[in-house]
Amino acid sequence: IQMTQSPSSLSASVGDRVTITCRASRTISAYVSWYQQKPGKAPKLLIYSASTLQSGVPSRFSGSGSGTDFTLTITSLQPEDFATYYCQQSYNALWTFGQGTKVEI
Amino acid sequence: EVQLLESGGGLVQPGGSLRLSCAASGFKFSIYAMTWVRQAPGKGLELVSGISASSTSTYFPDSVRGRFTISRDNSKNTMYLQMNSLRVNDTAVYYCAKALGPTLENSDAFDIWGRGTMVTVSS
Questions:
Q1: Which of A18, A40, B23, B64 could anchor a disulfide with B68, C-beta 3.0 to 4.6 Å?
Q2: Cα–Cα distance for residue pair A85/A46, rounded to 1 Å
Q3: Phi-psi region of B24 (alpha: psi -120 to 50; beta: other; left: phi over 0)
Protein backbone atom coordinates (compact mmCIF):
# COMPACT_ATOMS: atom_id res chain seq x y z
CA ILE A 1 0.00 0.00 0.00
CA GLN A 2 1.46 3.33 -1.07
CA MET A 3 0.91 6.51 0.92
CA THR A 4 1.10 9.73 -1.06
CA GLN A 5 1.53 12.87 1.01
CA SER A 6 0.89 16.39 -0.19
CA PRO A 7 2.31 18.88 -0.32
CA SER A 8 5.95 17.78 -0.05
CA SER A 9 6.73 21.13 1.55
CA LEU A 10 4.94 24.29 2.53
CA SER A 11 5.75 27.72 3.90
CA ALA A 12 3.61 29.12 6.68
CA SER A 13 3.60 31.71 9.41
CA VAL A 14 3.01 31.51 13.14
CA GLY A 15 -0.74 31.43 13.74
CA ASP A 16 -1.59 29.91 10.34
CA ARG A 17 -3.89 26.95 9.89
CA VAL A 18 -1.98 24.16 8.14
CA THR A 19 -3.42 21.08 6.45
CA ILE A 20 -1.42 18.09 5.23
CA THR A 21 -3.08 15.27 3.32
CA CYS A 22 -2.23 11.64 2.77
CA ARG A 23 -3.85 9.38 0.20
CA ALA A 24 -3.64 5.61 0.35
CA SER A 25 -3.43 3.51 -2.79
CA ARG A 26 -6.26 1.33 -1.47
CA THR A 27 -8.81 1.58 1.31
CA ILE A 28 -7.25 1.16 4.76
CA SER A 29 -10.14 1.93 7.11
CA ALA A 30 -8.68 4.24 9.80
CA TYR A 31 -5.26 2.65 10.17
CA VAL A 32 -3.32 5.89 9.86
CA SER A 33 -0.92 7.61 12.20
CA TRP A 34 0.90 10.92 12.00
CA TYR A 35 4.41 11.74 13.26
CA GLN A 36 6.43 14.91 13.67
CA GLN A 37 10.19 14.86 13.18
CA LYS A 38 12.65 17.64 13.85
CA PRO A 39 16.20 17.64 12.40
CA GLY A 40 18.48 15.14 14.13
CA LYS A 41 15.67 13.83 16.32
CA ALA A 42 13.50 10.73 16.38
CA PRO A 43 9.92 10.92 15.12
CA LYS A 44 7.22 11.76 17.65
CA LEU A 45 3.75 10.22 17.52
CA LEU A 46 0.99 12.84 17.20
CA ILE A 47 -2.14 11.00 16.04
CA TYR A 48 -3.12 7.32 15.69
CA SER A 49 -6.19 5.51 14.41
CA ALA A 50 -6.66 8.49 12.08
CA SER A 51 -8.05 10.84 14.74
CA THR A 52 -6.91 9.84 18.25
CA LEU A 53 -4.62 12.42 19.83
CA GLN A 54 -1.59 10.86 21.52
CA SER A 55 -1.27 11.72 25.20
CA GLY A 56 0.64 14.95 25.79
CA VAL A 57 0.20 16.29 22.25
CA PRO A 58 -1.31 19.78 22.06
CA SER A 59 -4.95 20.00 20.98
CA ARG A 60 -4.08 22.25 18.04
CA PHE A 61 -3.15 19.01 16.25
CA SER A 62 -6.01 16.95 14.85
CA GLY A 63 -6.49 14.15 12.37
CA SER A 64 -9.40 13.02 10.23
CA GLY A 65 -10.33 10.70 7.42
CA SER A 66 -11.09 7.10 6.62
CA GLY A 67 -10.86 4.83 3.62
CA THR A 68 -8.20 6.36 1.39
CA ASP A 69 -8.01 10.06 2.28
CA PHE A 70 -6.58 11.40 5.52
CA THR A 71 -5.73 14.84 6.88
CA LEU A 72 -3.51 16.28 9.60
CA THR A 73 -4.50 19.79 10.66
CA ILE A 74 -2.61 22.25 12.84
CA THR A 75 -5.09 24.97 13.78
CA SER A 76 -2.66 27.69 14.91
CA LEU A 77 0.95 27.02 13.94
CA GLN A 78 3.45 27.62 16.72
CA PRO A 79 7.23 28.20 16.37
CA GLU A 80 7.95 24.71 17.71
CA ASP A 81 5.76 23.13 14.99
CA PHE A 82 8.20 23.80 12.16
CA ALA A 83 9.27 20.26 11.31
CA THR A 84 8.69 17.41 8.88
CA TYR A 85 5.45 15.43 9.21
CA TYR A 86 4.93 11.83 8.12
CA CYS A 87 1.79 9.77 7.74
CA GLN A 88 1.96 6.00 8.24
CA GLN A 89 -0.50 3.24 7.41
CA SER A 90 -0.72 -0.08 9.24
CA TYR A 91 -3.45 -1.98 7.38
CA ASN A 92 -3.11 -5.75 7.69
CA ALA A 93 0.05 -5.33 9.78
CA LEU A 94 1.92 -4.00 6.76
CA TRP A 95 3.40 -0.62 7.53
CA THR A 96 4.41 2.09 5.09
CA PHE A 97 5.16 5.77 5.58
CA GLY A 98 4.40 8.71 3.38
CA GLN A 99 7.34 10.62 1.91
CA GLY A 100 7.00 13.51 4.37
CA THR A 101 5.87 17.14 4.38
CA LYS A 102 8.35 19.79 5.48
CA VAL A 103 6.69 22.77 7.17
CA GLU A 104 8.94 25.80 6.90
CA ILE A 105 8.73 29.38 8.04
CA GLU B 1 11.83 7.62 32.70
CA VAL B 2 10.56 5.79 29.65
CA GLN B 3 13.52 5.23 27.35
CA LEU B 4 14.87 3.22 24.43
CA LEU B 5 18.61 3.20 23.78
CA GLU B 6 20.07 1.77 20.58
CA SER B 7 23.64 0.59 20.19
CA GLY B 8 25.80 -1.41 17.81
CA GLY B 9 25.90 0.85 14.78
CA GLY B 10 29.07 1.65 12.89
CA LEU B 11 30.94 1.35 9.62
CA VAL B 12 30.87 -1.98 7.81
CA GLN B 13 31.90 -3.12 4.35
CA PRO B 14 29.35 -4.33 1.80
CA GLY B 15 28.52 -7.96 2.50
CA GLY B 16 29.36 -7.60 6.17
CA SER B 17 27.25 -8.02 9.29
CA LEU B 18 26.19 -5.95 12.29
CA ARG B 19 24.06 -6.61 15.35
CA LEU B 20 22.04 -3.76 16.76
CA SER B 21 20.66 -3.72 20.30
CA CYS B 22 17.81 -1.76 21.82
CA ALA B 23 17.67 -1.51 25.62
CA ALA B 24 14.33 -0.52 27.12
CA SER B 25 13.60 1.04 30.49
CA GLY B 26 10.73 2.72 32.29
CA PHE B 27 7.91 0.52 30.94
CA LYS B 28 6.87 -3.13 30.91
CA PHE B 29 8.88 -4.21 27.87
CA SER B 30 7.56 -7.78 27.81
CA ILE B 31 3.95 -6.85 26.92
CA TYR B 32 4.58 -4.72 23.84
CA ALA B 33 5.52 -5.43 20.25
CA MET B 34 8.68 -3.70 19.13
CA THR B 35 10.01 -2.52 15.79
CA TRP B 36 13.06 -1.22 13.95
CA VAL B 37 12.59 1.77 11.63
CA ARG B 38 15.38 3.20 9.50
CA GLN B 39 15.98 6.52 7.81
CA ALA B 40 18.59 6.93 5.07
CA PRO B 41 20.39 10.30 5.03
CA GLY B 42 17.96 12.99 3.89
CA LYS B 43 15.23 10.44 3.20
CA GLY B 44 11.99 9.22 4.74
CA LEU B 45 11.13 6.46 7.19
CA GLU B 46 11.05 2.72 6.48
CA LEU B 47 9.97 0.01 8.91
CA VAL B 48 12.47 -2.83 8.50
CA SER B 49 11.39 -5.29 11.18
CA GLY B 50 8.87 -5.97 13.89
CA ILE B 51 8.42 -8.57 16.63
CA SER B 52 5.48 -9.37 18.85
CA ALA B 53 5.70 -9.23 22.64
CA SER B 54 6.05 -12.99 22.96
CA SER B 55 8.31 -13.36 19.89
CA THR B 56 5.71 -15.59 18.21
CA SER B 57 5.47 -13.40 15.12
CA THR B 58 7.90 -11.25 13.17
CA TYR B 59 7.72 -8.95 10.16
CA PHE B 60 10.18 -8.03 7.44
CA PRO B 61 9.57 -6.08 4.23
CA ASP B 62 10.92 -7.45 0.96
CA SER B 63 13.91 -5.09 1.10
CA VAL B 64 15.50 -6.94 4.05
CA ARG B 65 13.75 -10.33 4.23
CA GLY B 66 16.29 -13.15 4.29
CA ARG B 67 19.12 -10.82 5.37
CA PHE B 68 17.85 -9.38 8.68
CA THR B 69 16.60 -11.26 11.73
CA ILE B 70 14.94 -9.82 14.81
CA SER B 71 14.83 -11.18 18.34
CA ARG B 72 14.18 -10.07 21.88
CA ASP B 73 15.10 -11.11 25.40
CA ASN B 74 12.29 -10.04 27.71
CA SER B 75 14.36 -10.98 30.78
CA LYS B 76 16.91 -8.36 29.72
CA ASN B 77 14.41 -5.80 28.33
CA THR B 78 16.39 -5.84 25.11
CA MET B 79 15.63 -6.27 21.40
CA TYR B 80 18.14 -7.14 18.71
CA LEU B 81 18.48 -6.75 14.95
CA GLN B 82 20.98 -9.02 13.23
CA MET B 83 21.87 -7.60 9.83
CA ASN B 84 23.74 -9.79 7.35
CA SER B 85 24.78 -9.33 3.71
CA LEU B 86 24.68 -5.58 4.18
CA ARG B 87 24.38 -3.35 1.14
CA VAL B 88 25.34 0.26 0.52
CA ASN B 89 21.65 1.19 0.46
CA ASP B 90 21.21 -0.16 4.01
CA THR B 91 23.09 2.94 5.18
CA ALA B 92 20.75 4.76 7.56
CA VAL B 93 19.96 5.76 11.10
CA TYR B 94 18.24 2.79 12.72
CA TYR B 95 15.61 3.59 15.36
CA CYS B 96 13.93 1.14 17.67
CA ALA B 97 10.34 1.97 18.48
CA LYS B 98 7.70 0.61 20.86
CA ALA B 99 4.33 -0.41 19.45
CA LEU B 100 1.03 0.48 21.10
CA GLY B 101 -0.03 -3.16 21.55
CA PRO B 102 1.35 -6.64 22.20
CA THR B 103 1.01 -7.98 18.69
CA LEU B 104 1.98 -6.66 15.30
CA GLU B 105 -1.59 -7.01 14.06
CA ASN B 106 -3.05 -4.62 16.65
CA SER B 107 -0.14 -2.18 16.76
CA ASP B 108 -1.01 0.57 14.35
CA ALA B 109 1.44 3.14 15.72
CA PHE B 110 4.70 3.54 17.61
CA ASP B 111 4.71 5.80 20.65
CA ILE B 112 8.25 5.61 22.06
CA TRP B 113 11.37 5.96 19.95
CA GLY B 114 15.06 5.76 20.69
CA ARG B 115 17.61 8.32 19.48
CA GLY B 116 18.86 5.99 16.77
CA THR B 117 22.17 4.43 15.82
CA MET B 118 23.95 5.12 12.54
CA VAL B 119 24.85 2.26 10.23
CA THR B 120 27.18 3.05 7.35
CA VAL B 121 27.84 0.45 4.68
CA SER B 122 30.79 1.46 2.56
CA SER B 123 34.03 0.09 1.16
A1: B64
A2: 10
A3: beta
Kindly indicate the confidence band of residue B78, based on its pLDDT and cuts at 50, 70 and 90.
Answer: very high
Q: A44 forms bridges with which residues in the sheet?
A: A36
Nearest of B90, B86, B78, B87 to residue B114 by alpha carbon: B78
Choose among B97, B100, B101, B102: nearest CA to B112.
B97
Residue of B nearest to A34 (CA): B109
Distance CA B116, CA A104 (A): 24
The model's pLDDT over A17-61, given as tens digits with 9 standing for 90+, comes to 999 999 999 998 899 999 999 999 999 999 999 999 999 999 999
Contacts with A, B 101-120, CB within 8 Å: 104-105, 107-111, 113-116
Select from B45, B47, B112 the residue whose CB has the most chain A CBs within 10 Å, as the one to mutate to test that interface: B45
Q: Residue B10 belongs to what H/E stretch?
A: strand B10-12
Determine contact, residues B4/B113, Cβ cutoff 8 Å. yes
